[in-house]
Amino acid sequence: MAATYPPLLATGVTDQGRFDPFDLYGGESDIVTDQGEAATGQAIRQFEVLMRNADGKLVPWTSAGGGYATGLITVGGQPVAAETVTLNGVAITFRVTVTGTGVECVIGGTTAITASNLATVITNNRETFQATASASGNVVTLAAEDVGTAGNSVTLVEGVADVGFTVSGATLTGGSSAEDTPSNNAIGIAGQPLDAAATNRWFPYFTGGIFNHQALVWPAGFMSLEERKRAFDGSNIGVRQVL
Question: Percent of the chain having pLDDT more than 90?
Fold first, then answer.
């Protein structure tokens, strides 16, 4: 999966006096945008490659034609040592320093650092948790390891006293089988992230243009430029390697 970039298009420069440039576009072309409606409970990451489900709603694209179950952990408040968050029945214990007992996550100096540490722990133990994770600010986005409805059974329980530390639900949600999706063609790229819990499901997305394939968020393991080009067959989007 490509690196997670800061939400520059959505909210501008996030840190005063700081700007992290990257090449979103892969060549000169007419950039076309539209507004689309995401599936209920579906988290969307910025610059994530999109497709439509059987209801015509936007969901993250997958080459298998199904959808990955997703969820969120919001580190809106700091955990304290020995508190836990449990994913797929396995507890992650927050520590000031690692003790070597079980799966542990170091509490960072800020909620964003704690979220980043937590995402790293989950992804490094993806087979145990049956999920991968990425962090943007203090929000950790979870995605089931495998495409399909099985990901909807991955449980999520928070055991942190601070009311700002929350999870999106009792399980990951939104996983779908290939039979639930009419096509596995990618049709767009998310211009803004969307929280799974957001009540307004409409958000802007790109429907045309030439993009740097390395700046986009793809399904895990889908790394080849040629595969990524084929994903957009039949659409007005092209992807290239930026030299």
Answer: 58
Q: Which domains does the chain have, with CATH numbers?
A: 8-66+178-240 (2.40.300.10), 70-167 (3.30.70)
Average pLDDT on 4-22 reads 49
pLDDT band (50, 70, 90) for residue 187: very high
| Closest to 104 in 3D by CA, of 120, 133, 166 | 120
Distance of CA 14 to the CA centre of its chain: 19
SS (H, E, C) the chain: CCCCCCCHHHHCCCCCCCCCCCCCECCCCCCEEEEEEECCCCCECCCEEEEECCCCCEEECCCCCCECCEEEEEECCCCCCCCEEEECCEEEEEECCCCCCCEEEECCCCHHHHHHHHHHHHHHCHHHHCEEEEEECCEEEEEECCCCHHHHHCEEEEECCCCCEEECCCECECCECHHHCCCCCCCEEECCCECCCCCCCEEEEEEEEEEEHHHCECCCCCCCHHHHHHHCCCCEEEEECCC
65-74 in b/e form (b: 16+ CB < 10 A) is bbbbbbbbbb
